[in-house]
Design a protein that fits this description.
This protein has an 8-stranded antiparallel barrel. The chain has 6 helices and 10 strands, in the order E-E-H-E-H-H-H-E-E-E-H-E-E-E-E-H. The protein has one domain (2-202): Hypothetical Protein Pfu-838710-001 (Beta Barrel). Strand 8 (156-163) and strand 9 (168-175) form a beta hairpin. It has 204 residues and is an alpha+beta fold. It has helices spanning 33-43, 54-63, 68-74, 79-85, 128-135, 199-202, and strands at residues 2-15, 18-19, 45-52, 96-102, 107-112, 118-125, 142-153, 156-163, 168-175, 189-190.
């Protein structure tokens, strides 16, 4: 179980046949776009993730015996805020619940707050049976991808993501401290502040 603030930047590497790797930082990782794609295809972990309707997510939280008050505090929310998010037909994208399973045999529930460069997160592993109980609820709101993670180097974790249902590849830099972003050379086009590149918005 993990509570925390996720600090990351996202860079576009390829989309719809167009590469964006002619950036000063890309060469620090790969000699070519083709080599990058080959590496992710050969060594990446297969991830399927889907986003739950909030009422369903709350039901799952209850089944895990998690402290809802503690969760709300983590996300700077009150019970009144939560009630507003439960109004039928209201599409509040500022607080989402994500289910994820990996080819490594792990199953995870993640609650993610709003934000671009920094946002609150809660993550907890769940059983395969509990995951399967709720997975159908994510239909129509899913992303499937390969992810190759480079373990923290100089305080930076790097996740190379290749989406499997469209021609799109991004890389995320995650740091423990925002200050670690200073001096980093971009490997692609910075799309951190562009909402349509959030995985929750790419889901379908």
């Amino acid at each position: 179980m993990r509570y925390g603030k996720e600090k990351e930047r996202k860079f576009l590497l390829r989309e719809d046949g167009i590469g964006y790797t002619e950036q000063p930082g890309f060469g620090q990782h790969y000699e070519s776009e083709e080599r990058m794609v080959y590496d992710v295809l050969s060594n990446g972990v297969h991830l399927e993730q889907g986003y739950l309707p909030l009422p369903v997510a709350l039901s799952m939280i209850e089944s895990l015996d998690l402290d809802l008050y503690t969760l709300l505090t983590q996300f700077d929310l009150t019970t009144e805020d939560l009630a507003e998010r439960l109004i039928p037909g209201q599409d509040d994208r500022s607080f989402v619940a994500r289910l994820r399973r990996s080819s490594e045999g792990t199953y995870e529930l993640s609650l993610r707050g709003n934000g671009y460069e920094e946002k609150p997160v809660f993550e907890d592993e769940v059983s395969e049976s509990l995951f399967n109980d709720y997975w159908d609820e994510t239909k129509g709101h899913r992303v499937e991808k390969l992810r190759l993670t480079k373990r923290p180097i100089f305080g930076v974790r790097i996740d190379w993501d290749l989406l499997l249902d469209r021609d799109l590849m991004v890389v995320e830099y995650e740091v423990a401290d925002i200050a670690h972003f200073q001096g980093l050379l971009p490997p692609g086009v910075d799309v951190t502040m562009i909402g349509r590149y959030k995985m929750r918005n790419l889901a379908r």
